[in-house]
Amino acid sequence: MASAAQSPVYRATTTAPVNIAVIKYWGKRDTTLNLPTNSSLSVTLSQKSLRTLTTASASADYPAEDTLTLNGKPQDIQSSKRTLACLSSLRSLRKALEDADASLPKLSAFPLRIVSENNFPTAAGLASSAAGFAALVRAVANLYQLPQSPRELSRIARQGSGSACRSLMGGYVAWRTGEQVDGSDSLAEEVAPASHWPEMRALVLVVSAEKKDVPSTEGMQTTVATSDLFATRAQTVVPERMDAIEAAIRDRDFPKFAEITMRDSNTFHATCLDSWPPIFYMNDVSRAAVRLVHDINRAVGRTVAAYTFDAGPNAVIYYEEKDSELVAGTVKAILGSSASGWEGPFYEPLAQLNTPGVALDKIDTRVLDVLKSGVSRVILTGVGEGPVTVEDHLVTEKGEAIIN
Ligand SMILES: Nc1ncnc2c1ncn2[C@@H]1O[C@H](COP(=O)(O)OP(=O)(O)OP(=O)(O)O)[C@@H](O)[C@H]1O
Ligand SMILES: C[C@@](O)(CCOP(=O)(O)OP(=O)(O)O)CC(=O)O
């Protein structure tokens, strides 16, 4: 443990959410600035279920190098260009404040000690980098008392991990690809707050909590360089879908939202398969989840559920609260006690439910078996708010890291 500081220790702590895209970011037009080839749109998920908690602290007494401890383990941030880029941009903004007001403490000159905790597996396709970099940027911005809006801070978070720029806001968030070569207009913006469509629910089927094979950054470079389908997706398909899904969100039109979400996930994974060598993120369990959603929608006679998959096999199934029994109730009946996680604030409408919302004989029998043996855990959640400032610091007043 680091020794206690004698000089003042300045601290700020924030939580930040995970977001799951319904129009996927996949491909960079500039790898240094981390600029995307297409716009993307996501739903911010409630921090009652998944969240990062990060404390940023600064003190003149800290050893010279900035440090980051993640889930109790020191991270090598000096060799993480992305983290260094975020910290250097934030420091410049603080320095400008200090230059304009001599009474401010010179925090920009102090080393940083950052301590963070994810309450879910890191690097397992659960968007830890999104919540992690959003929390890091928000915590340091709070520590430095920066006046910049979440939209302006998204330019910095984007350099940590592209998808992180969308976790600085709650609700329904777009990341506009932008046109400027310097990336100054490649920013996230709120399309609608969570309160506009609070009934949106997300059921995460955790298929594998292992570290994934091909990291997103590497996978998308391969796709950009080798897939013939990719250019059509980025230039034609996604711009049309962005307009259509924003209209669906504005109108709270779930069937439209759902179809675009499922089609965009499928197109993204098609470009992965079209890469050379091909990249497979979905597996047999993922495909069973796709089939399940289509079977449920067919049996109900309207679109009540939508699947989407990131760079890994986990399924995220979106539905509206009023259809909880039909969607989550059916999944609960299939998985029974073979999957953990049937709990938490979003579980209430299902707690007393003992029969599936959709009769299981309407679902392909192979799908039932594959899901039962392949899904280890579920996370029941819904649309939620952006980062929240909190007082439960992970660094003591004397500057010592608190490892839970
Ligand atoms: N709380 C955190 N604070 C700072 N950095 C974090 C935090 N959590 C995760 N990261 C960074 O994100 C990396 C994991 O990102 P990666 O893209 O591999 O996985 P993921 O985000 O969980 O999956 P995906 O992006 O496919 O959904 C970690 O190795 C770490 O560098
Ligand atoms: C499939 C995705 O989840 C890809 C996320 O990629 P990252 O944001 O992790 O990539 P980097 O910018 O290289 O860090 C789709 C999405 O979230 O939009």
TrEMBL record:
GO terms for molecular function: ATP binding; diphosphomevalonate decarboxylase activity. The keyword ATP-binding applies. Pathway: Isoprenoid biosynthesis; isopentenyl diphosphate biosynthesis via mevalonate pathway; isopentenyl diphosphate from (R)-mevalonate: step 3/3. It catalyses: (R)-5-diphosphomevalonate + ATP = isopentenyl diphosphate + ADP + phosphate + CO2. InterPro entries: GHMP_kinase_C_sf, Mev_decarb, Mev_diP_decarb, MVD-like_N, Mvd1_C, Ribosomal_Su5_D2-typ_SF, Ribsml_uS5_D2-typ_fold_subgr. Keywords: ATP-binding, Lipid biosynthesis, Lipid metabolism, Lyase, Nucleotide-binding, Steroid biosynthesis, Steroid metabolism, Sterol biosynthesis, Sterol metabolism. Residues 16-188 form the Diphosphomevalonate decarboxylase-like N-terminal domain. Its EC number is 4.1.1.33. Residues 202-389 form the Mvd1 C-terminal domain. Transmembrane segments: none annotated. GO terms for biological process: isopentenyl diphosphate biosynthetic process, mevalonate pathway; sterol biosynthetic process. GO terms for cellular component: cytosol. Belongs to the diphosphomevalonate decarboxylase family. This is Diphosphomevalonate decarboxylase.
